[in-house]
Amino acid sequence: MPRFLEILIALAGLVLLSPLFVLAAVLIPLESKGPVFYKADRVGRGGRTFVIWKFRSMIVNADKDGPAITTRRDSRVTAVGAFLRRTKLDELPQLINVLKGDMGFVGPRPEDPRIVSKYNDFQKEILLFRPGITSPASITFRSEEGMVPSDDWEKAYFNHILPRKLEMDLAYMKQATFSTDLNVMFQTIFNYNKNNI
After folding, report:
1. Strand 132-134 to 49-55 pairing
2. What are phi and psi of 68, to 5 degrees?
3. Is 129 helix (H, G, I), strand (E, B) or coil?
4. How many of the other CB atoms lie within 10 Å of CB of 139?
5. pLDDT tens across 40-95, in order?
6. What is the mean pLDDT of the chain?
C-alpha cells in the first residue's frame, strides 16, 4: 500500500474512531487503575525495536508477571480488556504506529524481543518486512490465546503456533501486492463483523 494512502487512512481512522478512544479512556481505568494505553517494545523491520501502542487490556505490569503472550483464561486480563481483545478494539491505537511508519496496515504481527530471540535463521527472514496491524496469520489465529494453555504455553506456542504463523506470513509477504493487501484488510473486517454480530 502506498505510504501516502496509509497516512490518509490512519488519520481518518483516528478522527472517526475518536469516540471509542474517549470511551476506552473512561472504562479502562474505571475497572483497573492505571494508564489507558499499553506501550511495549516490539521488533520490526530490520530487527529494529519500536514501541507499539494498544489499549491496556490487562492489569498493570502484567508483562512482568507472567508469560510473554496471553494464555487461555489468563487471569491478568480485565473484564473490559476481555471485550477489547475479543473485538480486537485493543489494536486501534496502532494507527499511531502506522502514522509513525513503524507499522503498515498489512504485514506480519510484530513480536516481543524475548520471542524474536528464539527465531531460527529461516524465521528471521520475517524481519525483512515491515510489520502490520493484520495479516493472513492474524486472521487464521484470531483466537490464538484460546489455543495456548497456561501450564505449558512455551511448548504450545514455540513448537506449534509461532512456526505456522511465521510460515504463513512469510509466504504471503514474498508475493504481496496492493490488491492482496486490500483483500487481507477486507477479510479482517469481514471476520470481525462475523464474530461480533
Report:
1. unpaired
2. -75, -10
3. coil
4. 15
5. 999 999 999 999 999 999 999 887 777 777 877 788 999 999 999 888 899 999 99
6. 90
Alpha helix (H) residue ranges in the chain:
3-16, 18-31, 79-87, 94-100, 113-116, 136-140, 153-156, 162-173, 178-196
The x, y and z cell numbers of residue 158, run together, are: 514455540
Which residues contact residue 31 at a Cβ distance below 8 angstroms, ignoring those fewer than 6 apart? 78, 79, 80
What HEC string does 118-147 produce? CCCCCHHHHHHCCCEEECHHHHHCCCHHHH
Distance CA 151, CA 6 (A): 40
CA dist list (Å): 26 to 8, 37, 47, 90: 27, 12, 35, 14
pLDDT-based confidence at 192, cuts 50/70/90? low
What residue type is 189 in one-letter code? I
